[in-house]
Amino acid sequence: MQTQSVDEALADFQGQLNLIFSRAKTLWRESAARMHPDLQPSGYKLLSYIARTGGANAHQLAELFEMDKSMVSRQIRMLEDFGLLESRPDERDGRLRALTATAAAQETLAQLRSENAERMRAVLAELTPEEVQAASKAFRLLAEV
Q1: pLDDT (0 to 100) of residue 1
Q2: Are 74 and 92 spatial neighbours (Cβ–Cβ below 8 Å)?
Q3: Are 84 and 102 in contact, with CB atoms under 8 Å apart?
Q4: Domains in the chain: boundaries
Q5: Are the C-beta atoms of residues 60 and 100 closer than 8 Å to each other?
Q6: Which of 39, 78, 79, 97 is in Cβ range 3.0-4.6 Å of 87 for a Cys bridge?
Q7: What separation, in Å, do the N-terminal and C-terminal C-alpha atoms of the chain show?
């Protein structure tokens, strides 16, 4: 592939990534509002991670999401106040709080995941399995940058 066509392809790829990021922000905002009208997208992302992994603590969340610890603490308090998150002393380190999603949060998140997966299937239906795998590989490599 010629350098110019590679550069053009990369520019197009970056433009499409920007659109995906913009759409993801919109989906996080909409999903957060469905969880609770006052839930912020950052709280939704934290809750989604906690639910997907079965639990976490504030320190892990701050590092993983590269967020200020005070912001994570505020989001955790809000999630607890909204009845979406439970907190208990961590069995391995009593100084930490183990965070888990409530049953109600798990149920709503499962519904949102199902709806999002159905949209994804519909959008990607025109691609071959090989094309989906190639896209997945590209995103995996980008995630490692």
Answers
A1: 55
A2: no
A3: yes
A4: 14-143
A5: no
A6: 97
A7: 23
- For 72, other C-beta atoms within 10 Å of its C-beta total 23
Please report the pLDDT score of residue 62 as a whole number. Answer: 96
- Alpha-carbon distance of 35 to 120, in angstroms, equals 20
Angle between helices 3-35 and 41-53 (to 10 degrees): 90
The CATH classification of domain 14-143, taken from the options 1.10.10.10, 3.40.50.300, 3.20.20.140, 2.40.128.600: 1.10.10.10
Q: If you write DSSP's letter for every residue of the chain in order, what string do you get? A: --HHHHHHHHHHHHHHHHHHHHHHHHHHHHHHHHH-TT--HHHHHHHHHHHHHT-B-HHHHHHHTT--HHHHHHHHHHHHHTTSEEEEE-SS-TTSEEEEE-HHHHHHHHHHHHHHHHHHHHHHTTS-HHHHHHHHHHHHHHHT-
| CA 98 to chain CA mean position, Å | 19
CA angle 118, 133, 8 (to 5 degrees): 105
**90 contacts: CB under 8 Å, gap ≥ 6:** 57, 96, 97, 98
